Amino acid sequence: MSARHLLILGGTGEAAALARSALARFGDSMAVTTALAGRTRHPGPIPGQVRIGGFGGPAGLAAYMMGQAVDRLIDATHPFAAEISRAGRLAAGRTGIPRLSLRRPAWQRHPLDRWIEVDSLEAAALLVGRVGRRAWLTVGANSITPFASATGVRFVVRMIDPPPEPLPLRFYEVVTGRGPFSLIEERHLLERHGIDVVVCKASGGAATEAKLIAARELSLPVIMVRRPPAEPGPSVETIDAALDWLDELDRAPQARRMS
């Protein structure tokens, strides 16, 4: 059997862990390539091959997969990376390449949480000045612009990399860091900066959940932007389940040959 080629649409900790686990389980029988958008200047170590940059939409992604003999695709992108997830679904449909989504489990609301759930960043920006005066903005570097119109708010913005140019906010301070973050770290940040409202996306997963626990313990409101609808198609929530799916793809042709 020739080596299989798995393309992972990545940019998350789960994607890097999946690449590592796939290589550990399948070894030389599977080539693994992880695709990154290139928004983080210094991504963490990722085993296997890494491709950085966009594909040019569904057609470009389909052409890449055919040109590189990709024969299985796993979308392990951020829950808010709707554009590349849609491109992955359409490209897989055009090429007939099996596709799976590795979806990060959503956060579960605790009875003591003071979440204010909204459907968009724009709605969060309209609301934040009515809820607090010192906001911790943790929505990602590419989601800052909608908050440019917010008035009467001082933002503390957490980013992985320092911004290359000033942010479009009236009053702000940048703190940098890469998760996972501990509860002690998150509580310290909230208290040191006098935060009275947290603004975040409903990203899910364990790497940044501590901020929600810290906000709950301090009885702080959290403006939570809901996830966009997930792309249709098969999905799993764990790396082990994704590896089992890859195994199933190999067993299916064998079963057809034996029948």
Description:
The radius of gyration is 20 Å and the shape is elongated. It has seven helices and twelve strands. The protein has helices at 13-26, 57-67, 82-95, 121-131, 183-192, 210-217, 239-258; strands at 4-9, 30-36, 49-52, 72-75, 99-102, 114-118, 134-138, 154-159, 172-176, 197-201, 221-225, 235-236. It has two domains: 4-105 and 230-258, Rossmann fold; 114-225, 3-Layer(aba) Sandwich (Rossmann fold), CATH 3.40.50.720. It is α/β, with parallel strands linked by helices. Helix 6 (210-217) links the parallel strand 10 and strand 11 (221-225).
- Helix count, per DSSP? 7
What's the total number of strands? 12
The best one-word shape is: elongated
CATH architecture title of the largest domain: 3-Layer(aba) Sandwich
H/E topology pattern: EHEEHEHEEHEEEHEHEEH
Distance between the termini: 19 Å
Percent strand equals 15-25%
Give the rounded overall mean pLDDT: 92
Structural category is: alpha/beta
Main CATH class of the largest domain: Alpha Beta
Q: Spatial order of the strands in the main sheet?
A: 3-2-1-4-5-12
Binned, the helix content reads 25-40%
Number of domains: 2
Short description:
With 259 residues, the chain is of the alpha/beta class.
List keywords for this structure.
alpha/beta, Rossmann fold, six-stranded parallel sheet
How do the helices and strands line up, and which of them pair or pack?
Blueprint: E1 4-9, H1 13-26, E2 30-36, E3 49-52, H2 57-67, E4 72-75, H3 82-95, E5 99-102, E6 114-118, H4 121-131, E7 134-138, E8 154-159, E9 172-176, H5 183-192, E10 197-201, H6 210-217, E11 221-225, E12 235-236, H7 239-258
Parallel strand pairs: 1-2, 1-4, 2-3, 4-5, 5-12, 6-11, 7-8, 7-10, 8-9, 10-11
